[in-house]
Amino acid sequence: MPEQQRPVTIRTVACIGAGVIGGGWAAYFLSRGLTVRAWDPAPDAEQKLRRVIDAAWPALTELGLAEGADPGAIELFGTAAEAVAGADFVQESAPEDLALKRALLAELAAAAGPGVVVASSTSGFPMSDMACEIDPAVAGRLVVGHPFNPPYLIPLVEVVGGERSEAWAVSAAADFYRHIGKSVIEMERELPGFIANRLQEAIWREALHMVAAGEATPEEIDRSITDGPGLRWPVHGPCLTFHLAGGEGGMAHMLDHFGPSLKAPWTRLEAPELTPELRDDMVDGAEVSAGGRPMAELVAERDRAVIAVRRAVAAARAAGAGTDPAGRS
Amino acid sequence: MPEQQRPVTIRTVACIGAGVIGGGWAAYFLSRGLTVRAWDPAPDAEQKLRRVIDAAWPALTELGLAEGADPGAIELFGTAAEAVAGADFVQESAPEDLALKRALLAELAAAAGPGVVVASSTSGFPMSDMACEIDPAVAGRLVVGHPFNPPYLIPLVEVVGGERSEAWAVSAAADFYRHIGKSVIEMERELPGFIANRLQEAIWREALHMVAAGEATPEEIDRSITDGPGLRWPVHGPCLTFHLAGGEGGMAHMLDHFGPSLKAPWTRLEAPELTPELRDDMVDGAEVSAGGRPMAELVAERDRAVIAVRRAVAAARAAGAGTDPAGRS
Predict the structure, then answer these.
(1) N or C terminus: fewer CB in 10 A for chain A?
(2) Domains, chain B, ordered by start
(3) Model confidence over B43-101: pLDDT tens digits?
(4) From A148, which residue of chain B is nearest by alpha-carbon distance?
């Protein structure tokens, strides 16, 4: 690659947008000892940013700050181009509006220095759709770096390039996020909504359908998750969860036993055909997720974790409300 | 109600089926100080049951046993009718096969004493479909009592009757589960998959679609949840999570901002029309879930809980694997 396209060492990050996501990113970058240059068109941008960072700082302190981390190491600029000038990495967190993102990303890509990656926090737009009209000379540095709210606490970042993104930019973004402690999924191809938002959106749409049909209330939907499968998902994802649901037979038994329920009207989402190939991919995938550990060890891990999660959540709720922290709810 | 249909005081539970769910129920009932009468047609039923109970007992001890709880207070019988005779409550956890459930529930309903509820652990069959051919004289005592795996750790139980279920039986089941520490959702009408399994099934089908299309691996799908939105779901369900995603504007801002993305191809599930009525139902529902607490308090609660959940999960994993328990993964 040409010299000017080698990724630079990152000490200063430009945060474009100061809402819940942009402010959360700023707080996280500051906690990692980085300097932040920010821009947001809102007249109260500075107060908004300050509020998000102040709210996040106790949590970040609790998790451990990097040496030299300073919640004051942030400066606001009058234009996006000024904020980007001198930044080693750019994180764009503007509202989810395609026309707005297109115009803003064109400006950011042009203002960023050589070797500087511009990552978008977009919740679901493929970069190819956002970068289609951008000068090819600078479009290569644009990638998606999609966080989860709040970006200062949830480790996942989905990284994926568009048709014009250069490979060095995708790798540099993934390396940077990993270096600052994120859990990165580097996707090989574009997919609207990436991975986690597709799963979350499926839940959300089914929830909206149930409320629209008068079948369940939002409160029942929330409790069905917090007191039900939600207690398992921080421990084992949906595939490993069903591997355990199969008992000693694991995913293979689960698919052979519950396969017919894929045809049941248990959700408005039509199921794919459970071909022998898909069955085998799921069974093999569960083995990868299980990391070769025997079922008894996975069950013991889940049990320890679910108990600890129940206690942790109950204590966190009680700290705010003065209720029973025993974890029995 | 006639005298013989008043719910009896429950000291002895019949567990029909000794798989992961039936065995998990048995362990939970024993931990609450109840006596269990079990039946399963498998030749190694006793060893299977013993294995599940032994694996569950450390977790149950950790959570706190009821006075007199005895993991040995369980007896296996040669027929389902024998196990049910003398039981004050019956929990059916047979394989998810409609014809099998129909025949078995008919036998259990006939064998159960007056005032004894027979609850099915079915993952999704409406009771009306399972009880359609059962003698009306005894069908009234049949209800759904749907747990989540493992039943000894996940609090949620969904309770719902069928067309012929009597109101006293539905109430008695809900009261019993609540009395033994479960989080009960008593549904007013039947819905295939109930509530939580519809949400979980939506995730599962989208996951299967992604694997079938080569868009993501099961390992990526699992990590996208455990390191992403899965960390929030034990704290705040999907509705309250999106209330927080809206920042100070809450659910109203979220729907007005992300409403258009309901039309985006972020999942294979078609979204409902976001009518003004549905929008208002979601906004009002989020207020109910929030319990009148201001946004800053909800954010602080989530942050405390997510930190504690991350640490709890990391420690539980490390206890099995000897890895870093700092919770940064």
Answers:
(1) N
(2) 3-186 (3.40.50.720), 227-321 (no CATH)
(3) 999 999 999 999 999 999 988 999 999 999 999 999 999 999 999 999 999 998 999 99
(4) B228
